[in-house]
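Technical appendix A lists one of the benchmark inputs used to test multi-chain prediction within the project. The record comprises two sequence entries:
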Amino acid sequence: MILGSMAVESQEAQPESTTAQDEREAMRARIESLERQIEKIENEGETETSREEIKVLAREEALAAVEERELTTGLEEYDVDEVSFRVYGFYDVTFVKNFFNKDHGYNYVLSGASTFMISNINLYFDSQLSENLSSLLELRFSFLPLGSEEHVYVEVDGTRIPDYEYERVDTRVYDPYTSENYELNGVAVERVHLTYSPRQWFNVTVGRYLTPFGIWNVDHASTVYVPATIPYFHVREMVPIAQTGLQVFGRVFPSERFFIDYAVTLSNGRGPIESVVDLDENKGVGLRLKLNYEGDAVRFSLGGYGYYGEYTDLHKTVSIDTAAPTVDTLLTTTSNYDELDVSGDFLLELFGVRAQVEYVYRYVIQNKAEMMGSIETIGATNSILGTYFIPSYTGWGIFAILSYELPLEKWIYPVRISPFVLYDGASPEDFMQLQDVQKVGAGFNIKFSRNVVTKVAGRAYLPDSDMFGGKFFTLLAQLAVSF
Amino acid sequence: MNALRRTFIVSLALIGLVAPGHISADEPDDILIIVNKSTKIERLSEIEIKLVFLKKKTHLNGKKINAFNAKENSELRAAFQQRVIKMNAEEEGNYWQDQKVRKGLRAPPEFGDTRKAVFHVANSLSYVFRKQHVEGVYRVVAVIPKQ
């Protein structure tokens, strides 16, 4: 039987749609009409023809009754405008061992001791406010700033520079009521925005959003991207990672399998405190275009993003003229440059193979004479003597990864294993080759379930300069969990 | 004719009923892609359906589409995953977990009876086996045969 014992969602009744009401009324009218016909035939006396007609009409009446019962019983109410709210997130635990000697220059930024780290604890607060309106807040929790080294001792040719003292952030506090010591930790706002989506080709996001460039910045989560660490050009923020402002974006379908994504960004741009306030009138603008192909066994995308903006830093001096009397605030620009960032990305997925390449190019035009710091001076000139100014410069970064999901589902489903190899290289500022780094690595991912992935990788760091001690090797193992 | 005979005839009609409506000679396990009658869609291709259910395409004919899935682990859902989405249940689960943290997207809601859901909600799209098809309740815009 058709109806059988269908599962019925028990939900609170909502006002019926006009369509459902009309259908039901039409069904009732039809049943009543059929009943009148049957009654008419019955009153006119039974004949062979009448018996056949009765059967047909009875059958149609049964059909109509079935359909009406089908439509009216066990109503599943679904309100497309119902507000829904979700909390979810991800975190990862990473074991790292850097293999370099204890006096290696990279001890400045990395730890030579093996360590467990928890660097990503992200929570999402997601609300579908109405059919076309949604809101997203992503917070990143961190054990930082505990342990952040603000300053280090500096010696030059065996002589300690007096202005440089060692300073490391200690967030431990003492509770006078319980005598307990505990650490205060940090929260960063990754993104917070409202999105209005009236059409697929036209959406508006307002707030703080991730810059729509590349693949990494869109993938964003350690449970999604393949290796355990992010590309070096991403670490150096060669393109602004996030922006505060508005974004217009959308998708159009020139054909069934091809679609084009676009995004136009307008924001405070890059600045020392741009997430709080813009220090100049210039706004950062960006344009994203991405071509996508969706096949049954093949998927690829080719995209690019261009960004132009002005960076400004300043300090303020309050000037009081007691004679006038007036109070003026003088703004003194301490740093100012224009930048043009261009990125390209390519992704190919084919029968379990994933090939991904990203490239970033940056052009910075200095508008203000800004002195180099000590490290920059050493890196640029191999000397600390003299006064040097940061020049206009260019930079580039490349990240490429090739992975393959082994066809082992027959034996180990749902576990999935994907070995990968990668190349990660960047020269963020061409005047300071000290920072140029190339890395090659290999490893594998084991996805135990949709929520848990383990990554194990080895990586060789190949700096262009031996000033910090030359190349070294790193072993990484990460457990990433989404919930 | 007395009421008892009339009841008998109606009962015969009900007992003789396997599936109402105009059932063709096609396979009962064909998947019919169904839309609410208010939807101005006449035909959909398999790739369009796949893109809608993966939320890579959210609007059809300029209107936002409400896609509904059958219950997870149901025979209907498994058939749809295999024939249209080209993923198994675990792969689809992985896909939505990734989409959630990337973009905050959520999978289409699930219903025990997709026919009712489509009947009641304007601009809705779902699927049903041909053997469970009810004529006149919605419109069929594609047929995905059993492979």
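Chain A touches chain B through 66 residues (CB under 8 Å). Helices of chain A lie at 18-43, 48-72, 216-219, 232-235, 374-381, 409-412. Comparable benchmark entries are summarised in Table A2.
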